[in-house]
Amino acid sequence: MKSFKTYICIDDTDEIAYEKSTGEIAEEIKQYIEDEFNIACSLVTRHQLFLHEDIPYTSHNSSMCFTCSLTQNQKEQIKEFIIQYLNKYSAPTSQPGLCIGFDKDIANKEELINFGLDAKEKVLTKKHAYEMALKQGLDLSEHKNEGQGVVGALAGVALRVSGFDGRVKGKFETKKEFMSVEELLKLDFIDEVRFKNEKLASNDIIVKTTQALKTVFLEHKSVLLIQKCEEGYEVVKKEDLKSY
Amino acid sequence: MFENINNKQIFKYGKDAYKKAILQAIDCKSFILDKDEDELITSIDQNSCYNCLYRRWTQESFMCMALNK
């Protein structure tokens, strides 16, 4: 059977001071797919959504999204697994939402992306999310309580589709104090190295790498951002990645 | 360091007052470091209100959910 690029996104699975974050759950689901189906999954991206008192997020209102290549059967099996997993491991008062769907089925990517961008600036409703998901051929479902997580779950897919939003989940530490861009590009999780103005850095540039390496998602790539410092160049600090 | 706005304890100094957020966390008995590393704002000096499991971000600052209990 043929496989297709599939988006999987979850939101709102935790409550304040809960033992497991949405990011952890996303990583565990990804690990399950890799272990049980022997299918490689992409990096997980974290998408910041609108912060507003009318939105019942726990702490930071972000959804987690990744992709993999699945057949129709696999998509259905994995969806069932995720539902059971969310029911078991999400916090009792949480409102998990799950969005899963094939890239090929998205009817209008521009419209979907605009939904995602709206979710970063406005309060959106579940009704709107369900209508958009139906229109775009995406499977959207809620799994506990009021199910408000569906808005973030769909928005996460939308923003991932845009290719220009989010931070890549996870941090990577290197034992080296300095690395060239050429060496950094050999690391699995780094597709490009760019300056803060987003221009590409040339291979011969030496970067101070004493800080953990965190990448952002630009043009569908995992990009390490660097900036000038006293010793030449350094990775952009975590504090300065808040806007991604 | 907090002000009461609509019965919510909001950090007065916004999202870039790193030193103040650290000072506030020093004596806080409720401080718990967020276990999700991706949600930590600072890479060093992690014991900060900005990295606490009880902080709930708003547009301009954060609300302390421990004080709001």
Automatic annotation (TrEMBL), chain A:
The protein, known as? tRNA(Ile2) 2-agmatinylcytidine synthetase
The scientific name of the source species is Malaciobacter marinus
* Organism classification: Bacteria, Pseudomonadati, Campylobacterota, Epsilonproteobacteria, Campylobacterales
